[in-house]
Every structure is written in C-alpha cells, then in structure tokens.
Amino acid sequence: MLSIDTVVAFTLASVVLAFAPGPDNIFVLTQSALKGPKAGVAVTFGLATGLVVHTAAVVLGLAALIAVSELAFTALKVVGAAYLVYLAIGAFRAKPEAIEATDGKARSLGQYYRRGIIMNVTNPKVSIFFLAFLPQFVDAGAGNTTAQMLTLAALFFLVTLVVFSSIALMAGQIGTRLSNSPKAQVLMNRIAGTIFLGLALKLALSER
After folding, report:
1. Which of 15, 137, 151, 196 has the fewest CB atoms found within 10 Å of its own CB?
2. C-alpha–C-alpha distance, residues 180 and 194, integer Å
3. Nearest residue to 21 via CA among 99, 118, 85, 103
C-alpha cells in the first residue's frame, strides 16, 4: 500500500503540474472563456477519460516489466529521467503563449467531451510522461506494484478533474491574467521545470 507521505507528495506534484501552462489546460481555459464553463468542464472530462486509456496501458505493461526484469527497470529509469530532463529544458525555455480562439463554431457538450478524448488519446507524450512519472512514487517493497500504480493513476485522474474543472469555472479571471501577464506563465513554467529536474534526479538515483 502507498504511504500517506507518498500520497501527499504525489498529489502536490500532480496539482502543480496540472496548473503549469500546457496544451490541455490552455485548451480548457480558452474553450471555457470563449464558450462558457460548461464547455470547459466537458473538455476536462474528455481529457480525463483519455487518461484512463493511457494509464491502463502504461500501468499494466510497466508493472510486468518491473516485476521480471532488472534490465527493463534500469532502461526505463534512464529513459524516464532523460525525458523528464527534456521536459524541464522545454519548460525553462518556453515562452508565454497567446490565448486565442481556434474554432468559433458552436458545439454540443458531447462534442467538446469527444474532442477532449481525442486530444488526449492521440498524444503519445502522455504515455511517455506516465512511464517517467508513476514509477518514482512506487515502493517495490510495499506490495503489489500494479495496485500502487493504479492508485496513483486514479489520484492523477481526480487531480486532473478538480484542477481543470477549477480552471474552467474560473476561466474569465484566469484567462485574463495569463494572457495579460507573461510573467505568470514564465513563473509557472519555471516551477514545473524545477519539479521535472527534481523528479529526474530522484528517478536516476532510485533502486529497484
């Protein structure tokens, strides 16, 4: 079972990463600001549904690899740490993004929901991210690794719903602040970059 400290650390990291400016939360924000909070919440549920597809594939396959292969664990650790460093560099170098409308057509909530699913499922970087992120919070000596990672995936799912729905409901204020304050975007990107580097170091030093 996961310890309370692990759950708290994972939840806090997930919240910060969910708030860091990126394609998904920027899309939720723009759709909410332009089409209303219901559209943003519908997109959020679509994105979260896509997470289920990614995490199921990653968790089940990853747990099997960790259980049977020291080489696979080491290779995964190296790849995961390298990818996290790549994300950190990208976050530190990211420029403030303009928040603009990309589609002025009226859509039903179901259409927004499906759009969220498609956006998430068709993004292979989501699976790669979970391959790098989840193992750092798994304790191989604490029992069933599959159950641990499924629990972490469920926590990330809930965090995504809460954070993105909050963004949708407060889209007017947040959208204005982010679009008018490049410093706010830069700060969030630097926070995310620092977290990525810390996670990369933790993963590189971890043992099976």
Report:
1. 15
2. 24
3. 99
